[in-house]
Amino acid sequence: MKLIFEKSITGRRGVKPPQSDVPSSTVLDKKLLREKPAPLPELSELDAVRHFTELSRRNFGIDTNFYPLGSCTMKYNPKVTELVASSPNFTSLHPLLPQIPAGDKLTQGALQVLYETDLLLREITGMAAFSMQPMAGAHGELTGIMIISAYHKAKGNVKDTILIPDGAHGTNPASASIGGYHVKTIPSDENGYMDMDALKEALHDHVAGLMLTCPDTLGIFNPRIKEICDLVHSVDGLVYYDGANLNAIVGKARPGDFGFDIVHLNLHKTFATPHGAGGPGSGPVGVVQKLVDFLPVSVVVKKKDGTFALEYSRPKTIGYIAPFYGNFAIILRAYAYILMLGRIGLERVSENAVLNANYIREKLKPYYDLPYAQLCKHECVFSASRQNQYGVHALDIAKGLIDAGFHPPTIYFPLIVKEALMIEPTETESKETMDAFVDAMIEIAKLAETEPEKLKAAPLTSPAGRLDETSAARNPNLAYLD
Amino acid sequence: MFPKECRYAETHEWARPEKETNIVTVGITGFAVEQLGDIVYLELPKVGAKVQKGSSLGMVESVKATSELYAPVSGEVAEVNSDISNNLEIFKSDPYGKAWLLKIKASDKKELDSLMDAETYEKQLEGH
Amino acid sequence: MPFIANTDQQRKEMLAELGLTMEGLFADIPKQLRCKPLNLPQALSEQQLREHMTALGAKNSTGLTYFLGGGFYDHFIPAAVDAITSRSEFYTAYTPYQPEISQGTLQAIYEYQSAICRLTEMEVANASLYDGGTAIYEAVTMAIQVTGRNKVIIDDSVNPIYRVMLESYTRNLKIDHERTQNTDGLINHKQICSDIDEHTAAVVVQNPNFFGFADDFTDIAHAAHEKGALLIVSCYPVSLGIFKTPGSMGADIVTGEGQSLGLPLSFGGPYLGIIASREKYVRKMPGRLVGQTTDNRGQRGFVLTLQTREQHIRRDKATSNICTNESLCALRALVYLTLLGKEGLRETAQLCADKAAYAFKRLTAIPSVKPRFNSKNFFNEFVVELPKPTGQIIPKMLEQGIAAGFPLSKYYKNMENSLLVAVTEKNTKQQIDKLAQTLEACL
């Protein structure tokens, strides 16, 4: 398929701006102007639309078929939230409006959305206050690390280390490191739980905090979670909750009740906002009362007369994390989603998510190695080790699934499981879809034994075959320039 | 399995001293190459750079991972393999020969004694 | 239950197969850690939700004529941008980690990277960052990693919001900020060139700057390179329809806010962080990169590449912690740039410049309204000095349905009467005339 630039024909026009209704300006110094216009493509609107339509047909979304990516929560993105978020009453609002005199009167609806979403998320997580500014989960993590730093600095604590379990998502150590901390890894024991002895040994006065997700990246809930939080508190450390796995416990349990001090949520996971093929997301951060003063500004407040306004005067704030109030259009979608589900709907989310994951776990147990045998929550982790004896790896199983019409699960994560296959069905999938997926996985297990070369050759039916990642990295070609 | 004339670091570098001079040739072991997968890029020090045993010399980047390269001995970088970047496939076929990365003029050849010999390195890998 | 497919009957069957009850599925959570039923409002049906959101939306103003910019602009968005990016194969997809079934996303990002390089005349661009402010922070981090130095020179003609963000992000890092001040709305070239020394990692400038002025930073690029420092230019993409590019000036890293490329204002986000650099810095560039390659069928294809710099592999040694970026927003920008094309972007930029010049003329023709600065080399934004504080005038203008501009006193000293007025191709001559008439009446 050609690139858009390869379809360009000199002189072709797509969408034309209107004719000017003012005199042309000759004031600009010619030395400041570019000599030639930017070599952007020249296509008719129809050719452009066909190009992008063709591209979309080479893609795979949740709307296409089952997408069981572990730790990503690929649940259905409701169309109604797309509709309400597209209203010009929200999309046309300039973010500076509430910052200019008398401007906040004109954005009361938007400010109300931000304010109410904060309250809803507090109730769902058991935290005292949220900032909606972080624009992604990892961004929320960095914000959390900055809050941890500010807390310790204010208390005069000398802290230089963040503890992170060995199964953690890469953004955790990356965020801690970028925040200026040294990272110490805590191993898991043979049952997949955090090694408590290793934790106790690692906890010294210089530990600023612990970053954790719960259930963990194996999909396992650690019943000693409160004890872990208490231990970290005993050295005046703070415990950070990576909210990526909230779908497992939403409506049933709250990180605030476990003892977590800081929480980030992934609205594009638990709260059904679309992944957008890699973004935009939204990663609001919630904190316990003792950390509220450190949250980023501005903050949306409700005045005595019931109107909403922005407040900036928080002397201990960590500052601006985003240019404005966060990814508002994403927050709006999550807000709408929460309102549609209500209390009972959210409880049903975790119930069905956990039931679906355990159902798949039970069905696939005979065919794939299951490193940890206990009840899982919203995701289960298998290993392709059994298939290794035939020369088949997790990668080949993934490619085989593509030919079966499914999106593969997450592979090679978490790192603590060799040849990991992490499956998260989510609550929006039906029994028939999951049965079809299980059948495909069983078929692949058989093929691994009897015809492994078929899996090695997969995928055959996808828009592209296996791609040469080595030469892409050896001779990077990152742009098509004339 | 591993060349006997080399010494081996825990971080999977090999070091081969020349008999007469203080020059020590450095590369990464076949085990490292196997773990890394296809190597795509190298970041190596400049000639003349002073290095300390155990300090970072540069990086070896593969499709799967980027690994730090650590100095097995202290000294000064005497020579850097200028051909290898155009010939990264060589790691698979000749990791101890043509895929040498750099030569260090060692300040103290005795530092090699604390590295592992071929047999010990091989034994130690059995844990992996 | 909305969005849940399985019926009670099916759940019963599944639980029976597992030999568990629904309560049993949560037995691993200690009873004392279970929460009470959440205190949340009753669920709304789709119909009720839509009514509720319509009512909320009605509490926002509509129909305001915008002359408000400050880095974020009300540009025209062609209908096909929404139509294309509403295709669910784009927006319900995940990050393209399985390239064989993500060629749509991957090729689109490759084309976006290419378009940004062509626009800015830089050699490589990434797949997007969160916004123009975090892009500056990431660029500064890149410069620090490349040079091994820790001093950053940044001028106050760079967007104040971005400067506050940079300070917030770098508060705990040992970075030495040198803050220079504008001279008559422009960068003091002589001062900056002489301030660059062997401790300087980067100089950060903006073009057009926050006051709307375009400038040429070739001399600063030279001065920086002579001392081994990098030049970072934060740009306004639409302006590059007519203005000299940061690439041709010698910039090492270019950042920018892509909101003006087909993204609605959306009350603050999502936006689009642009970053591009010279090829030699590509391995220090944060975020995702898409590269061209071939597949095992001999076809051209695209993959995420140089991923080992990223968090999911390099972890605590990553170049940045970014994971989710603004992929769909980058797609919008690509579609926008494609639909407008080479001539369309140039014409749009020219319209902005012409209409701003016209607005400037009309406003400064009002006897009590003066230009704040001397230069006439502004793109689509300029500063006028009113006879009264902007705090008094702006509300009156809003009552007339006009967002007249941004009060610079919010970020700058001695600018209580200074108004930053923005004009885009959407502003008609009638609207500009009405702006001038209404302003004169309000003074």
Number of helical regions of chain B? 3
Q: How many beta-strand elements of chain B?
A: 9
Major sheet of chain A: 7 strands, mixed
Return the CATH class of the largest domain in chain A.
Answer: Alpha Beta
CATH topology of the domain at 19-106 in chain B: OB fold (Dihydrolipoamide Acetyltransferase, E2P)
Walk across the major sheet of chain A and give the strand order: 1-7-6-5-4-2-3
Helical amount among residues of chain A, as a percent range? 25-40%
* Content-based structural category of chain B: alpha+beta
- The proportion of residues in beta strands of chain B is 25-35%
Q: CATH topology of the largest domain in chain A, which one?
A: Aspartate Aminotransferase, domain 2
Q: What summary fits the major beta sheet of chain B?
A: 6 strands, antiparallel
Provide a count of the helices of chain A. Answer: 15
What would CATH call the architecture of the largest domain in chain A?
3-Layer(aba) Sandwich
Mean pLDDT figure of chain B: 92
Number of strands of chain A: 12
The portion of residues assigned to helices of chain B is 10-25%
Helix and strand pattern of chain B: EEEHEEEEEHEH
- Poorly predicted ranges of chain B (pLDDT <50, ≥5 residues)? none
* Rg result of chain B: 13 Å
Distance between the termini of chain B: 16 Å
CATH superfamily of the domain at 19-106 in chain B: RNA polymerase II/Efflux pump adaptor protein, barrel-sandwich hybrid domain
Description:
The complex is a heterotrimer of chains A (482), B (128) and C (443). Chain A has 482 residues and is an alpha/beta fold. Chain A is 35% helix and 10% strand. In chain A, a hairpin with an 8-residue loop joins strand 11 and strand 12. Chain A is globular, with a radius of gyration of 25 Å. Chain B has a domain of 88 residues: RNA polymerase II/Efflux pump adaptor protein, barrel-sandwich hybrid domain (OB fold (Dihydrolipoamide Acetyltransferase, E2P)), CATH 2.40.50. Chain B is globular and about 35 Å long. Helix content of chain B is 15%, strand content 34%. In chain B, strand 2 and strand 3 form a beta hairpin. Chain C has 443 residues and is an alpha/beta fold. Chain C has a seven-stranded mixed beta sheet, with helices on both faces. A four-stranded antiparallel beta sheet of chain C has the order 11-12-15-14, with helices on one face. In chain C, strands 1-13 form a two-stranded parallel ribbon. In chain C, helix 7 links the parallel strand 3 and strand 4. The interface between B and C is small, with 8 and 7 residues.
